[in-house]
Structure of GNAT family N-acetyltransferase:
Amino acid sequence: MLQIREVLPSEYDALGELTVRSYDTGGFLIGGLEDDYVPHLRDVAERAANATVLVAVDGDRLLGGVTVAFPGSPLMELGGEGDAEIRMLAVDPAAHGRGAGSALAAACVERARAEPGTKRIVLCSQETMTTAHRIYRRLGFEREPALDWEPLPGVRLQAFALAL
């Protein structure tokens, strides 16, 4: 049975590897496994120290994970005061279609709604992450083109936002 909960320290390495595998299999790492983003994807301990990291599990099987950051976190890229931000949503390619991505994104929205002073939740996503875009739209997110940005030349990230 699918369950969403906070990551355990004993799961940091496995979630880091799952996240890299998900991004690599999906073709989202421009430089493959040599991409400069890989160390950030792997470093779950850093994320957990600066934000909330949630995992989707089925029994003892790790299906995916996501980070939700709040103001003051160094993991905030788009968000400002009153915003929460979803980062690094990843699902094990072997678990696609089981609802883990949707459940993780919905849990981020729930966490943001429960955080006092949070008025909006934002995220950025590569243009090619169309499965994730469908999940976000189903949850009520809308495109926020004013927040689109390019972390590297030719890598355009699309912003989405949901008023809470």
Q: What stands out?
A: The radius of gyration is 15 Å. Residues 100-114 form the longest helix (15 residues). The chain has one domain: 2-163. Residues 145 and 159 are 6 Å apart (CA to CA).
